[in-house]
Amino acid sequence: MTTETYPTIPQTPPPPPTAPTKRKGGFAKKAFFALLILAVIGVFGMIGYVKWTEGKIDRIPSEELTSLATVAPGSPEPANFLIIATDDRSDLPDDWEDNFGDFTGRRTDVMMLAHLVPGERIQLLSLPRDLQAEIEGQGTNRLNAAFVFGGPDLLIKTVQQETGIPVHHYVEIDFGGFGRIVDSLGGVTIDFPYPARDGKSGFEVEAGTHTLDGEMAVAYARSRTYEEYRDGSWQGSGGGDIARTQRQQDIMVQLFDQVVSPSSAFNLPAFLPTFADNITADEGLSLALMTSLGRSALGLQSSNIDRVTLPVKNYKGSDGRAYVIATEDAAAVIAAFKAGDPYP
Protein backbone atom coordinates (compact mmCIF):
# COMPACT_ATOMS: atom_id res chain seq x y z
CA MET A 1 0.00 0.00 0.00
CA THR A 2 1.28 3.37 -1.04
CA THR A 3 1.62 6.01 1.70
CA GLU A 4 0.72 9.48 0.49
CA THR A 5 2.74 12.42 1.66
CA TYR A 6 0.89 15.68 2.11
CA PRO A 7 2.63 19.04 1.94
CA THR A 8 3.29 20.71 5.28
CA ILE A 9 1.15 23.76 5.81
CA PRO A 10 3.29 26.57 7.19
CA GLN A 11 2.20 27.74 10.64
CA THR A 12 1.79 31.44 11.14
CA PRO A 13 3.79 32.39 14.21
CA PRO A 14 1.76 33.98 16.98
CA PRO A 15 2.09 37.75 17.21
CA PRO A 16 4.61 38.95 19.79
CA PRO A 17 3.14 40.00 23.10
CA THR A 18 2.11 43.63 23.06
CA ALA A 19 4.33 45.81 25.22
CA PRO A 20 2.46 48.02 27.68
CA THR A 21 1.91 51.46 26.25
CA LYS A 22 4.15 54.09 27.89
CA ARG A 23 2.39 57.31 28.80
CA LYS A 24 4.09 60.28 27.34
CA GLY A 25 5.86 62.46 29.91
CA GLY A 26 5.75 59.84 32.67
CA PHE A 27 9.42 60.25 33.63
CA ALA A 28 9.20 64.03 33.50
CA LYS A 29 6.19 64.03 35.81
CA LYS A 30 7.93 61.76 38.29
CA ALA A 31 11.01 63.97 38.25
CA PHE A 32 8.87 67.07 38.72
CA PHE A 33 7.10 65.62 41.74
CA ALA A 34 10.41 64.46 43.21
CA LEU A 35 11.86 67.94 42.85
CA LEU A 36 8.69 69.44 44.29
CA ILE A 37 8.97 67.21 47.36
CA LEU A 38 12.62 68.11 47.79
CA ALA A 39 11.79 71.80 47.45
CA VAL A 40 9.06 71.55 50.09
CA ILE A 41 11.42 69.71 52.43
CA GLY A 42 14.12 72.33 51.77
CA VAL A 43 11.80 75.27 52.44
CA PHE A 44 10.43 73.81 55.66
CA GLY A 45 13.92 72.74 56.65
CA MET A 46 15.19 76.29 56.10
CA ILE A 47 12.30 77.76 58.09
CA GLY A 48 13.05 75.30 60.86
CA TYR A 49 16.73 76.22 60.73
CA VAL A 50 16.01 79.95 60.88
CA LYS A 51 13.55 79.50 63.77
CA TRP A 52 16.08 77.33 65.60
CA THR A 53 18.70 80.02 65.02
CA GLU A 54 16.38 82.79 66.21
CA GLY A 55 15.63 80.78 69.34
CA LYS A 56 19.28 81.05 70.37
CA ILE A 57 19.04 84.82 70.88
CA ASP A 58 18.93 85.87 74.53
CA ARG A 59 15.84 88.09 74.74
CA ILE A 60 15.18 91.04 77.03
CA PRO A 61 11.48 91.12 77.99
CA SER A 62 9.52 94.04 76.56
CA GLU A 63 8.53 95.25 80.02
CA GLU A 64 12.23 95.82 80.77
CA LEU A 65 12.74 97.97 77.64
CA THR A 66 9.91 100.46 77.93
CA SER A 67 12.04 103.26 76.48
CA LEU A 68 12.24 101.69 73.01
CA ALA A 69 10.51 103.73 70.32
CA THR A 70 7.93 102.06 68.09
CA VAL A 71 7.61 102.11 64.32
CA ALA A 72 4.08 102.50 63.00
CA PRO A 73 3.00 99.54 60.81
CA GLY A 74 3.73 100.27 57.17
CA SER A 75 5.91 103.24 58.01
CA PRO A 76 8.74 103.85 55.51
CA GLU A 77 10.96 105.05 58.37
CA PRO A 78 13.98 102.73 58.73
CA ALA A 79 14.40 101.07 62.11
CA ASN A 80 17.25 102.35 64.26
CA PHE A 81 19.41 99.95 66.25
CA LEU A 82 21.48 100.71 69.32
CA ILE A 83 24.40 98.26 69.21
CA ILE A 84 26.59 98.02 72.27
CA ALA A 85 29.57 95.87 73.20
CA THR A 86 30.21 95.36 76.89
CA ASP A 87 33.50 94.67 78.63
CA ASP A 88 32.05 91.61 80.37
CA ARG A 89 34.95 89.18 80.75
CA SER A 90 33.04 86.35 82.43
CA ASP A 91 32.89 84.11 79.35
CA LEU A 92 36.25 84.72 77.66
CA PRO A 93 37.55 81.56 75.93
CA ASP A 94 40.04 79.62 78.05
CA ASP A 95 42.74 79.70 75.37
CA TRP A 96 42.84 83.52 75.13
CA GLU A 97 45.87 85.25 76.56
CA ASP A 98 45.44 87.22 79.78
CA ASN A 99 45.42 90.64 78.13
CA PHE A 100 41.91 91.79 78.96
CA GLY A 101 42.20 92.57 82.66
CA ASP A 102 40.35 91.06 85.57
CA PHE A 103 37.35 93.28 86.14
CA THR A 104 33.91 92.25 87.28
CA GLY A 105 30.59 93.65 86.10
CA ARG A 106 29.65 95.06 82.71
CA ARG A 107 30.34 98.45 81.19
CA THR A 108 29.68 99.68 77.66
CA ASP A 109 32.88 99.52 75.62
CA VAL A 110 31.20 100.31 72.29
CA MET A 111 28.02 102.32 71.59
CA MET A 112 26.88 102.61 68.01
CA LEU A 113 23.63 103.59 66.33
CA ALA A 114 22.84 101.88 63.03
CA HIS A 115 20.09 101.75 60.49
CA LEU A 116 19.47 100.40 57.03
CA VAL A 117 18.11 102.54 54.23
CA PRO A 118 16.81 99.74 51.95
CA GLY A 119 18.55 99.63 48.60
CA GLU A 120 20.77 102.62 49.41
CA ARG A 121 23.05 102.42 52.44
CA ILE A 122 23.75 101.33 55.99
CA GLN A 123 24.52 104.18 58.37
CA LEU A 124 26.68 103.85 61.48
CA LEU A 125 26.98 106.58 64.11
CA SER A 126 29.40 105.90 66.97
CA LEU A 127 28.78 107.60 70.31
CA PRO A 128 31.82 108.38 72.49
CA ARG A 129 31.66 106.75 75.92
CA ASP A 130 32.68 110.01 77.62
CA LEU A 131 29.92 112.12 76.06
CA GLN A 132 28.45 114.37 78.74
CA ALA A 133 24.85 113.42 79.37
CA GLU A 134 22.01 114.10 81.76
CA ILE A 135 21.00 110.72 83.13
CA GLU A 136 17.54 110.45 84.62
CA GLY A 137 17.74 110.14 88.39
CA GLN A 138 21.54 110.37 88.35
CA GLY A 139 22.38 113.88 87.18
CA THR A 140 25.29 114.76 84.91
CA ASN A 141 27.67 111.95 84.01
CA ARG A 142 29.33 110.22 81.08
CA LEU A 143 27.01 108.50 78.64
CA ASN A 144 28.27 104.99 79.38
CA ALA A 145 27.38 105.47 83.06
CA ALA A 146 23.69 105.19 82.13
CA PHE A 147 24.20 101.47 81.46
CA VAL A 148 25.87 100.98 84.85
CA PHE A 149 23.10 102.84 86.68
CA GLY A 150 20.07 101.42 84.92
CA GLY A 151 21.02 98.82 82.32
CA PRO A 152 19.87 98.82 78.68
CA ASP A 153 16.62 100.71 79.27
CA LEU A 154 18.24 103.73 80.93
CA LEU A 155 20.97 103.77 78.29
CA ILE A 156 18.36 103.75 75.50
CA LYS A 157 16.46 106.57 77.19
CA THR A 158 19.63 108.64 77.62
CA VAL A 159 20.81 108.10 74.02
CA GLN A 160 17.42 109.20 72.70
CA GLN A 161 17.42 112.24 74.96
CA GLU A 162 20.95 113.36 74.03
CA THR A 163 20.71 112.74 70.27
CA GLY A 164 17.02 113.06 69.48
CA ILE A 165 17.29 109.79 67.53
CA PRO A 166 14.57 107.22 68.27
CA VAL A 167 15.89 103.76 69.13
CA HIS A 168 13.66 100.91 67.92
CA HIS A 169 15.86 97.89 68.63
CA TYR A 170 18.66 96.97 71.00
CA VAL A 171 21.52 94.51 70.41
CA GLU A 172 24.25 93.71 72.96
CA ILE A 173 27.38 91.57 72.77
CA ASP A 174 30.41 91.03 75.02
CA PHE A 175 34.14 90.46 74.38
CA GLY A 176 33.98 86.68 74.17
CA GLY A 177 30.85 86.65 72.02
CA PHE A 178 32.35 89.07 69.51
CA GLY A 179 35.47 86.92 69.25
CA ARG A 180 33.42 83.78 68.60
CA ILE A 181 31.45 85.54 65.85
CA VAL A 182 34.67 86.64 64.15
CA ASP A 183 36.06 83.11 64.34
CA SER A 184 32.87 81.64 62.86
CA LEU A 185 33.57 83.67 59.69
CA GLY A 186 37.16 82.52 59.52
CA GLY A 187 38.51 85.80 60.93
CA VAL A 188 38.32 89.41 59.76
CA THR A 189 40.77 90.77 57.16
CA ILE A 190 42.22 94.26 57.71
CA ASP A 191 45.03 96.16 55.98
CA PHE A 192 47.70 97.77 58.17
CA PRO A 193 49.92 100.39 56.46
CA TYR A 194 52.45 100.22 59.34
CA PRO A 195 53.43 97.69 61.99
CA ALA A 196 51.03 98.20 64.89
CA ARG A 197 50.77 97.16 68.52
CA ASP A 198 49.11 97.77 71.87
CA GLY A 199 51.01 96.51 74.88
CA LYS A 200 47.93 96.54 77.09
CA SER A 201 45.50 94.65 74.88
CA GLY A 202 48.16 92.32 73.46
CA PHE A 203 47.60 93.40 69.87
CA GLU A 204 50.59 93.19 67.51
CA VAL A 205 50.91 92.89 63.70
CA GLU A 206 53.44 93.59 60.98
CA ALA A 207 52.60 95.94 58.11
CA GLY A 208 50.39 94.40 55.45
CA THR A 209 47.06 92.64 55.14
CA HIS A 210 46.22 90.34 58.04
CA THR A 211 43.31 88.09 58.91
CA LEU A 212 42.67 88.60 62.62
CA ASP A 213 41.18 85.80 64.66
CA GLY A 214 38.57 86.57 67.31
CA GLU A 215 41.07 87.29 70.08
CA MET A 216 43.14 89.69 67.99
CA ALA A 217 40.01 91.38 66.59
CA VAL A 218 38.86 92.15 70.14
CA ALA A 219 42.35 93.36 71.09
CA TYR A 220 42.33 95.68 68.04
CA ALA A 221 38.80 96.99 68.64
CA ARG A 222 39.36 97.83 72.31
CA SER A 223 42.91 99.17 71.97
CA ARG A 224 43.46 102.34 74.02
CA THR A 225 47.24 102.69 73.61
CA TYR A 226 47.47 101.93 69.89
CA GLU A 227 50.88 102.56 68.33
CA GLU A 228 52.33 102.40 64.82
CA TYR A 229 55.98 102.00 63.83
CA ARG A 230 56.74 104.97 61.60
CA ASP A 231 59.96 106.80 60.73
CA GLY A 232 62.04 104.44 62.84
CA SER A 233 60.11 104.64 66.10
CA TRP A 234 56.86 103.58 67.78
CA GLN A 235 54.38 106.44 67.78
CA GLY A 236 50.96 106.74 69.35
CA SER A 237 48.25 107.12 66.75
CA GLY A 238 46.49 109.84 68.73
CA GLY A 239 42.77 110.47 68.63
CA GLY A 240 42.01 108.73 71.93
CA ASP A 241 38.52 107.28 72.17
CA ILE A 242 37.49 108.78 68.82
CA ALA A 243 40.24 106.89 66.97
CA ARG A 244 39.15 103.75 68.80
CA THR A 245 35.57 104.11 67.52
CA GLN A 246 36.97 104.37 64.00
CA ARG A 247 38.82 101.08 64.44
CA GLN A 248 35.62 99.51 65.72
CA GLN A 249 33.81 100.73 62.62
CA ASP A 250 36.61 99.29 60.44
CA ILE A 251 35.96 95.87 61.90
CA MET A 252 32.19 96.20 61.43
CA VAL A 253 32.65 97.14 57.77
CA GLN A 254 35.09 94.30 57.09
CA LEU A 255 32.83 91.77 58.82
CA PHE A 256 29.92 92.94 56.68
CA ASP A 257 32.07 92.48 53.58
CA GLN A 258 32.82 88.91 54.57
CA VAL A 259 29.23 88.04 55.43
CA VAL A 260 27.94 89.14 52.00
CA SER A 261 30.93 87.78 50.08
CA PRO A 262 30.23 84.63 47.99
CA SER A 263 33.46 83.15 49.35
CA SER A 264 31.92 83.14 52.84
CA ALA A 265 28.87 81.11 51.82
CA PHE A 266 30.25 77.95 53.41
CA ASN A 267 30.81 79.83 56.68
CA LEU A 268 27.23 81.08 57.00
CA PRO A 269 25.80 77.85 58.51
CA ALA A 270 28.29 78.30 61.36
CA PHE A 271 28.08 82.10 61.50
CA LEU A 272 24.29 82.50 61.84
CA PRO A 273 23.76 80.31 64.94
CA THR A 274 27.00 81.61 66.47
CA PHE A 275 25.84 85.18 65.98
CA ALA A 276 22.43 84.41 67.48
CA ASP A 277 23.93 82.51 70.41
CA ASN A 278 26.18 85.41 71.38
CA ILE A 279 23.87 88.42 71.26
CA THR A 280 21.21 89.79 73.57
CA ALA A 281 18.33 91.63 71.88
CA ASP A 282 14.86 93.05 72.40
CA GLU A 283 11.85 90.84 71.76
CA GLY A 284 10.78 92.97 68.81
CA LEU A 285 13.73 91.82 66.71
CA SER A 286 11.55 89.19 65.04
CA LEU A 287 12.24 86.49 62.50
CA ALA A 288 10.33 88.45 59.83
CA LEU A 289 12.29 91.64 60.53
CA MET A 290 15.68 89.88 60.51
CA THR A 291 14.79 88.16 57.23
CA SER A 292 13.73 91.46 55.66
CA LEU A 293 16.85 93.28 56.86
CA GLY A 294 19.09 90.45 55.70
CA ARG A 295 17.53 90.41 52.24
CA SER A 296 17.98 94.16 51.87
CA ALA A 297 21.54 94.14 53.21
CA LEU A 298 22.67 91.43 50.80
CA GLY A 299 22.13 93.86 47.94
CA LEU A 300 24.66 96.29 49.41
CA GLN A 301 28.45 96.43 49.62
CA SER A 302 30.85 97.88 52.16
CA SER A 303 31.11 100.98 49.97
CA ASN A 304 27.43 101.57 50.80
CA ILE A 305 28.21 101.89 54.52
CA ASP A 306 28.28 105.49 55.75
CA ARG A 307 30.06 105.80 59.08
CA VAL A 308 31.02 108.60 61.38
CA THR A 309 31.65 109.31 65.06
CA LEU A 310 29.55 112.04 66.61
CA PRO A 311 31.65 115.25 66.33
CA VAL A 312 32.80 116.24 69.82
CA LYS A 313 35.40 118.28 71.67
CA ASN A 314 37.03 117.92 75.06
CA TYR A 315 35.35 119.56 78.02
CA LYS A 316 36.10 119.85 81.73
CA GLY A 317 32.89 119.64 83.72
CA SER A 318 32.10 121.65 86.83
CA ASP A 319 32.19 118.33 88.71
CA GLY A 320 35.87 117.97 87.80
CA ARG A 321 35.30 115.13 85.33
CA ALA A 322 36.79 115.09 81.84
CA TYR A 323 34.03 114.84 79.23
CA VAL A 324 33.49 115.33 75.55
CA ILE A 325 30.57 117.42 74.33
CA ALA A 326 28.96 117.68 70.90
CA THR A 327 30.25 120.38 68.57
CA GLU A 328 28.06 122.51 66.33
CA ASP A 329 28.74 120.04 63.49
CA ALA A 330 26.93 117.29 65.42
CA ALA A 331 23.47 118.64 64.57
CA ALA A 332 24.01 118.13 60.82
CA VAL A 333 25.32 114.59 61.38
CA ILE A 334 22.32 113.67 63.53
CA ALA A 335 19.91 115.21 61.01
CA ALA A 336 21.47 113.16 58.20
CA PHE A 337 21.18 109.96 60.23
CA LYS A 338 17.52 110.61 61.05
CA ALA A 339 16.71 111.40 57.42
CA GLY A 340 18.67 108.47 56.00
CA ASP A 341 20.82 110.87 53.96
CA PRO A 342 24.58 110.71 53.37
CA TYR A 343 26.60 112.37 56.11
CA PRO A 344 27.79 115.92 55.45
Biggest sheet layout:
7 strands, mixed
Distance from first to last alpha carbon: 131 Å
The fold-level CATH name is Aminopeptidase
* Total DSSP E strands: 17
CATH classification class: Alpha Beta
Q: Could you say which structural class the secondary elements and strand pairing correspond to?
A: alpha+beta
Spatial order of the strands forming the largest sheet: 1-14-7-2-3-4-15
Q: How many distinct helices?
A: 8
CATH architecture type: 3-Layer(aba) Sandwich
**Poorly predicted runs:** none
Shape descriptor: globular
Strand content: 15-25%
The CATH H-level homologous superfamily: LCP protein
Question: Compute the gyration radius: what is it?
Answer: 31 Å
Share of residues in helices: 25-40%
Task: Describe the overall structure.
The protein is an alpha+beta fold. It has one domain (51-339): LCP protein (Aminopeptidase, 3-Layer(aba) Sandwich). It has 8 helices and 17 strands. The protein has helices at residues 26-54, 145-163, 175-184, 214-221, 240-260, 268-277, 287-297, 330-339; strands spanning 58-60, 80-86, 108-117, 121-126, 132-135, 139-142, 169-174, 188-192, 196-198, 203-205, 208-212, 227-230, 233-236, 280-282, 305-309, 312-316, 322-326. A 7-stranded mixed beta sheet has the order 1-14-7-2-3-4-15, with helices on both faces. Strands 10-9-12-13 form a 4-stranded antiparallel beta sheet. Strand 16 and strand 17 form a beta hairpin. It is globular and about 85 Å long.
